[in-house]
Specification:
With 252 residues, the protein is α/β, with parallel strands linked by helices. The protein contains seven helices and nine strands, in the order E-E-H-E-H-E-H-E-H-H-E-E-H-E-E-H. It has one domain: 3-Layer(aba) Sandwich (Rossmann fold), CATH 3.40.50. Strands 1, 2, 3, 4, 5, 6, 7, 8 and 9 form a nine-stranded mixed beta sheet that branches. Strand 1 and strand 2 form a beta hairpin. The radius of gyration is 17 Å and the shape is globular.
Protein backbone atom coordinates (compact mmCIF):
# COMPACT_ATOMS: atom_id res chain seq x y z
CA UNK A 1 0.00 0.00 0.00
CA UNK A 2 1.21 3.55 -0.68
CA UNK A 3 0.35 6.97 0.72
CA UNK A 4 2.42 9.35 -1.43
CA UNK A 5 1.11 9.95 -4.93
CA UNK A 6 4.41 9.35 -6.69
CA UNK A 7 4.92 5.95 -5.06
CA UNK A 8 1.92 4.33 -6.76
CA UNK A 9 4.08 2.60 -9.39
CA UNK A 10 2.27 4.19 -12.35
CA UNK A 11 3.72 6.47 -15.01
CA UNK A 12 2.04 9.60 -13.72
CA UNK A 13 3.36 11.98 -16.38
CA UNK A 14 0.72 10.82 -18.83
CA UNK A 15 -1.90 11.93 -16.32
CA UNK A 16 -0.40 15.41 -16.05
CA UNK A 17 1.96 14.87 -13.11
CA UNK A 18 4.56 17.66 -13.05
CA UNK A 19 7.63 18.31 -10.92
CA UNK A 20 9.24 21.71 -10.38
CA UNK A 21 12.64 22.14 -8.73
CA UNK A 22 13.00 25.42 -6.89
CA UNK A 23 16.22 27.36 -6.55
CA UNK A 24 16.19 27.46 -2.74
CA UNK A 25 17.05 24.82 -0.13
CA UNK A 26 16.83 21.92 -2.61
CA UNK A 27 13.03 22.02 -2.43
CA UNK A 28 10.93 20.54 -5.24
CA UNK A 29 7.18 20.53 -5.73
CA UNK A 30 4.92 18.10 -7.57
CA UNK A 31 1.29 18.28 -8.64
CA UNK A 32 -1.28 15.86 -10.00
CA UNK A 33 -5.02 16.12 -10.70
CA UNK A 34 -6.92 12.83 -10.74
CA UNK A 35 -9.84 14.01 -12.83
CA UNK A 36 -12.25 11.09 -13.16
CA UNK A 37 -13.10 7.54 -12.10
CA UNK A 38 -11.13 5.98 -14.94
CA UNK A 39 -7.92 7.73 -13.89
CA UNK A 40 -8.68 6.92 -10.26
CA UNK A 41 -8.97 3.19 -10.99
CA UNK A 42 -5.81 3.12 -13.12
CA UNK A 43 -3.63 5.06 -10.71
CA UNK A 44 -5.11 3.67 -7.50
CA UNK A 45 -5.85 7.12 -6.05
CA UNK A 46 -9.11 8.84 -5.24
CA UNK A 47 -10.24 11.72 -7.44
CA UNK A 48 -8.87 15.10 -6.42
CA UNK A 49 -5.83 17.36 -6.55
CA UNK A 50 -2.51 16.28 -5.05
CA UNK A 51 0.45 18.47 -4.12
CA UNK A 52 3.82 17.39 -2.72
CA UNK A 53 6.54 19.58 -1.23
CA UNK A 54 9.86 17.75 -0.96
CA UNK A 55 12.30 19.47 1.40
CA UNK A 56 15.30 17.12 1.81
CA UNK A 57 17.28 19.44 4.11
CA UNK A 58 14.44 20.59 6.34
CA UNK A 59 16.17 19.30 9.48
CA UNK A 60 19.60 20.75 8.63
CA UNK A 61 19.09 24.24 7.22
CA UNK A 62 17.20 25.94 10.03
CA UNK A 63 14.49 28.56 10.33
CA UNK A 64 14.81 30.20 6.89
CA UNK A 65 14.17 26.86 5.22
CA UNK A 66 11.24 26.20 7.56
CA UNK A 67 9.73 29.64 6.88
CA UNK A 68 10.10 29.22 3.12
CA UNK A 69 8.45 25.79 3.13
CA UNK A 70 5.61 27.01 5.33
CA UNK A 71 5.00 29.98 3.02
CA UNK A 72 4.91 27.68 -0.03
CA UNK A 73 2.27 25.48 1.59
CA UNK A 74 0.16 28.41 2.81
CA UNK A 75 0.15 29.89 -0.71
CA UNK A 76 -1.01 26.56 -2.11
CA UNK A 77 -3.64 26.27 0.61
CA UNK A 78 -4.99 29.75 -0.19
CA UNK A 79 -5.33 28.70 -3.81
CA UNK A 80 -7.16 25.51 -2.80
CA UNK A 81 -9.51 27.53 -0.58
CA UNK A 82 -10.30 29.80 -3.51
CA UNK A 83 -11.00 26.88 -5.84
CA UNK A 84 -13.27 25.23 -3.26
CA UNK A 85 -15.12 28.46 -2.45
CA UNK A 86 -13.87 28.55 1.16
CA UNK A 87 -13.86 32.04 2.70
CA UNK A 88 -12.66 33.61 5.96
CA UNK A 89 -16.20 33.26 7.29
CA UNK A 90 -16.48 29.55 6.39
CA UNK A 91 -16.78 27.09 9.25
CA UNK A 92 -13.68 24.91 9.41
CA UNK A 93 -13.07 21.72 11.38
CA UNK A 94 -9.45 20.58 11.92
CA UNK A 95 -8.99 16.87 12.64
CA UNK A 96 -5.73 15.49 14.05
CA UNK A 97 -5.70 11.78 13.16
CA UNK A 98 -3.33 9.09 14.39
CA UNK A 99 -2.24 7.61 17.69
CA UNK A 100 -0.85 10.34 19.98
CA UNK A 101 0.84 7.68 22.13
CA UNK A 102 3.10 6.57 19.25
CA UNK A 103 5.45 9.37 18.22
CA UNK A 104 5.68 8.35 14.54
CA UNK A 105 1.88 8.40 14.34
CA UNK A 106 1.35 11.61 16.30
CA UNK A 107 1.62 14.27 13.55
CA UNK A 108 -2.11 14.96 13.78
CA UNK A 109 -1.86 15.63 17.53
CA UNK A 110 1.20 17.87 17.00
CA UNK A 111 -0.69 20.08 14.56
CA UNK A 112 -3.82 19.98 16.74
CA UNK A 113 -1.83 21.31 19.70
CA UNK A 114 -0.25 24.12 17.68
CA UNK A 115 -3.41 25.63 16.15
CA UNK A 116 -5.31 28.08 18.33
CA UNK A 117 -9.09 28.41 18.43
CA UNK A 118 -11.22 31.12 20.03
CA UNK A 119 -14.08 29.21 21.73
CA UNK A 120 -15.28 32.22 23.74
CA UNK A 121 -15.70 34.36 20.64
CA UNK A 122 -19.36 34.20 19.58
CA UNK A 123 -18.24 34.52 15.95
CA UNK A 124 -15.70 31.70 16.23
CA UNK A 125 -15.76 29.58 13.07
CA UNK A 126 -12.68 27.39 13.64
CA UNK A 127 -13.03 24.10 15.50
CA UNK A 128 -10.57 21.28 16.15
CA UNK A 129 -10.77 17.70 17.31
CA UNK A 130 -8.30 14.86 17.96
CA UNK A 131 -10.27 11.57 17.88
CA UNK A 132 -7.44 9.07 18.69
CA UNK A 133 -7.63 5.64 17.02
CA UNK A 134 -10.52 3.20 16.74
CA UNK A 135 -8.84 0.64 19.01
CA UNK A 136 -8.72 3.23 21.81
CA UNK A 137 -12.23 4.63 21.41
CA UNK A 138 -14.32 1.92 19.73
CA UNK A 139 -15.81 4.67 17.55
CA UNK A 140 -15.19 4.95 13.82
CA UNK A 141 -13.52 8.30 13.14
CA UNK A 142 -15.76 8.88 10.12
CA UNK A 143 -18.88 8.76 12.32
CA UNK A 144 -17.40 11.35 14.67
CA UNK A 145 -16.45 13.67 11.81
CA UNK A 146 -19.92 13.37 10.25
CA UNK A 147 -21.51 14.24 13.58
CA UNK A 148 -19.39 17.38 13.97
CA UNK A 149 -19.91 18.45 10.36
CA UNK A 150 -23.66 18.14 10.74
CA UNK A 151 -24.01 19.79 14.15
CA UNK A 152 -21.46 22.58 13.61
CA UNK A 153 -22.55 23.20 10.00
CA UNK A 154 -18.96 22.79 8.83
CA UNK A 155 -17.97 23.87 5.30
CA UNK A 156 -14.44 22.43 5.29
CA UNK A 157 -12.64 19.62 7.10
CA UNK A 158 -8.83 19.77 7.32
CA UNK A 159 -7.31 16.37 8.17
CA UNK A 160 -3.73 15.77 9.35
CA UNK A 161 -2.08 12.37 9.71
CA UNK A 162 1.27 10.59 9.52
CA UNK A 163 1.94 8.61 6.34
CA UNK A 164 4.23 5.81 5.18
CA UNK A 165 6.81 5.89 2.40
CA UNK A 166 8.80 3.40 0.33
CA UNK A 167 11.90 5.65 0.26
CA UNK A 168 13.93 6.20 3.42
CA UNK A 169 15.14 9.60 2.19
CA UNK A 170 11.55 10.88 2.30
CA UNK A 171 10.95 10.17 5.97
CA UNK A 172 9.83 13.49 7.42
CA UNK A 173 10.80 15.44 4.31
CA UNK A 174 7.82 15.09 1.95
CA UNK A 175 4.73 17.15 2.78
CA UNK A 176 1.60 16.14 0.86
CA UNK A 177 -1.64 18.12 0.54
CA UNK A 178 -4.70 16.66 -1.18
CA UNK A 179 -8.35 17.53 -1.79
CA UNK A 180 -9.33 13.86 -1.98
CA UNK A 181 -9.71 13.26 1.74
CA UNK A 182 -7.92 10.59 3.75
CA UNK A 183 -8.38 7.02 4.94
CA UNK A 184 -7.16 6.58 8.55
CA UNK A 185 -4.44 3.93 8.77
CA UNK A 186 -4.33 3.29 5.00
CA UNK A 187 -0.55 3.23 4.83
CA UNK A 188 -0.29 0.38 7.33
CA UNK A 189 -3.17 -1.65 5.87
CA UNK A 190 -5.62 -0.79 8.65
CA UNK A 191 -8.42 0.28 6.38
CA UNK A 192 -10.81 2.65 8.08
CA UNK A 193 -13.63 4.41 6.31
CA UNK A 194 -12.51 7.22 4.05
CA UNK A 195 -13.10 10.78 5.21
CA UNK A 196 -13.92 12.79 2.09
CA UNK A 197 -16.50 15.17 0.65
CA UNK A 198 -18.83 12.35 -0.37
CA UNK A 199 -18.75 10.66 3.04
CA UNK A 200 -19.02 13.69 5.36
CA UNK A 201 -20.89 16.26 3.27
CA UNK A 202 -18.21 18.97 3.40
CA UNK A 203 -15.08 19.79 1.42
CA UNK A 204 -11.98 17.98 2.69
CA UNK A 205 -8.28 18.85 2.57
CA UNK A 206 -5.67 16.51 4.01
CA UNK A 207 -2.06 17.08 5.10
CA UNK A 208 0.35 14.20 5.51
CA UNK A 209 4.05 13.57 6.12
CA UNK A 210 5.63 10.10 6.02
CA UNK A 211 7.33 9.08 9.26
CA UNK A 212 7.22 5.30 8.78
CA UNK A 213 8.77 2.92 6.26
CA UNK A 214 8.20 -0.80 5.91
CA UNK A 215 11.16 -3.12 6.50
CA UNK A 216 10.11 -4.90 3.28
CA UNK A 217 11.43 -1.86 1.39
CA UNK A 218 14.92 -3.06 2.33
CA UNK A 219 14.77 -6.84 2.73
CA UNK A 220 12.35 -9.62 1.91
CA UNK A 221 11.31 -11.32 5.12
CA UNK A 222 8.30 -13.07 6.60
CA UNK A 223 8.11 -10.42 9.30
CA UNK A 224 7.27 -6.93 8.05
CA UNK A 225 7.79 -4.15 10.58
CA UNK A 226 7.53 -0.37 10.41
CA UNK A 227 10.74 1.60 10.90
CA UNK A 228 10.97 5.25 11.96
CA UNK A 229 13.70 7.94 11.98
CA UNK A 230 16.11 8.06 14.92
CA UNK A 231 15.15 11.65 15.79
CA UNK A 232 11.44 11.00 15.41
CA UNK A 233 10.31 13.23 18.30
CA UNK A 234 12.11 16.31 16.97
CA UNK A 235 11.15 15.56 13.36
CA UNK A 236 7.43 15.17 14.07
CA UNK A 237 7.50 18.29 16.22
CA UNK A 238 9.08 20.39 13.46
CA UNK A 239 6.77 19.05 10.75
CA UNK A 240 3.77 19.76 12.97
CA UNK A 241 4.98 23.31 13.57
CA UNK A 242 5.38 23.96 9.82
CA UNK A 243 1.96 22.56 8.91
CA UNK A 244 0.20 24.37 11.76
CA UNK A 245 1.75 27.68 10.72
CA UNK A 246 0.76 27.23 7.08
CA UNK A 247 -2.84 26.47 8.09
CA UNK A 248 -3.05 29.30 10.63
CA UNK A 249 -1.82 31.84 8.07
CA UNK A 250 -4.79 30.97 5.87
CA UNK A 251 -7.63 30.50 8.33
CA UNK A 252 -6.90 33.64 10.43
Amino acid sequence: MFDLIDECGSDLKRFGYTVKRLDRYGISTATLDVKNREESREIGLSEGSYYIFNSPFIYQLGEENEEFLSSLMSKRLKNIFKNLGIKKSSRILIIGLGNPDIKADSLGKEVFDKIDVQPLDKDNNIFKFCPNIFFSTGIDTLNMVKMFVRNLKVNLVIIIDSLTTQNIARLGTSFQITTSGMTPGSGVNRFGNRICRESVGAECISFGVPFMISSSSFVKDDVDILLVPKDIKENVGLAGKIIAKSISEVIY
